[in-house]
Design brief:
Layout: E1 2-10, E2 13-20, E3 31-32, E4 36-44, E5 46-50, E6 53-57, E7 61-65, E8 70-74, E9 80-87, H1 89-96, E10 106-108, H2 111-126, H3 129-148, H4 160-174, H5 183-190, H6 194-205, H7 209-226, H8 232-239, H9 244-255, H10 259-265
Antiparallel strand pairs: 1-2, 2-9, 3-8, 4-7, 4-9, 5-6, 5-8, 7-10
Length: 275
């Protein structure tokens, strides 16, 4: 069952919260849409097939849809909750330039892009669609365009084998499989050498497997801060950081802000833009 709830709508864009409660391994019937879309996963994961290629999507990997593109979906791992951003060709061209569609159907959601997504949703909760939401939306779209228009293509050398290997590794890391505790044990779980696994991530996502693991933990930290987590020492311990200082250093390095500042930035009552 698929449901979509509008979050913010204006003539140039529509932001919706989409929830899918399906649990099926088969592909849905093909569908074609006429808009540009950026779809970011908040919880869960699913599969998308377009242009003859299938990709596994979760909180670390968003997809970009283009007008006239045929796509199908499958949900072998259960349901998911996503933010779907639909924009008109005019708005897309204002950011990407005339005739510039995305060069890849997916975009890696690094910590800054994850924070931009959350900031947009926080702005939507404030109710100021015409300024706060629009400003955060444009910042998010500009980041997505910078990663996907020609000239910002996926790392060279990626292959179907890399894509399959990285997809399974991502799932193990996201699900906190015991074997994901170290690179060697994760490689053993997947039946490949540590070197093979460490080479596949940069070719497929443009970041190392270590960087990807940091990204997953930072996402969990943002979830807790967004929910108003009071104890940073408890948060650090729960996420596997050595101590609160280690957590603070990590967030500052990846996002440029301390946990306390991030909690304030994710408060819908705070309309301050990121510098």
């Amino acid at each position: 069952m698929l449901s979509a709830r509008p979050i913010a709508t204006r003539p140039g864009f529509e932001i919706s919260a989409v929830a899918c409660r399906s649990d099926h391994t088969r592909w849905s019937p093909p569908e074609v849409r006429g808009d540009y879309r950026v779809v970011l996963v908040r919880r869960g994961r699913f599969r998308r097939q377009a242009a003859g290629a299938a990709v596994d999507l979760d909180t670390s990997l968003a997809y970009l849809g283009t007008p006239g593109e045929e796509e199908s979906f499958a949900h072998p791992a259960g349901g998911d909750h996503c933010t779907s951003i639909s924009v008109t060709p005019t708005l897309w061209r204002s950011l990407a330039g005339d005739g510039n569609g995305p060069s890849a159907g997916t975009v890696y959601v690094d910590p800054p892009l994850d924070l931009a997504h959350r900031r947009m949703l926080a702005a939507a909760r404030s109710g100021d669609v015409d300024y706060a939401v629009t400003e955060e939306l444009l910042a998010l779209l500009a980041a997505a365009v910078a990663r996907t228009v020609p000239g910002h293509t996926r790392a060279a050398g990626s292959s179907a084998r890399d894509r399959a290997l990285v997809a399974v590794a991502r799932e193990a890391i996201t699900d906190e499989h015991p074997a994901s505790a170290t690179l060697f044990s994760l490689a053993g779980l997947l039946g490949v050498s540590p070197y093979r696994l460490s080479r596949a991530f940069p070719r497929e996502l443009g970041v190392s497997v270590t960087h990807y693991r940091h990204r997953v933990r930072i996402g969990r930290a943002l979830d807790r801060l967004e929910a108003g987590e009071a104890s940073l020492s408890v948060l650090a311990a729960d996420l596997g950081y050595a101590d609160q200082a280690h957590l603070t250093r990590t967030l500052r390095r990846h996002l440029g802000h301390t946990p306390t500042a991030l909690r304030r930035l994710l408060d819908p009552a705070n309309g301050t833009r990121l510098s």
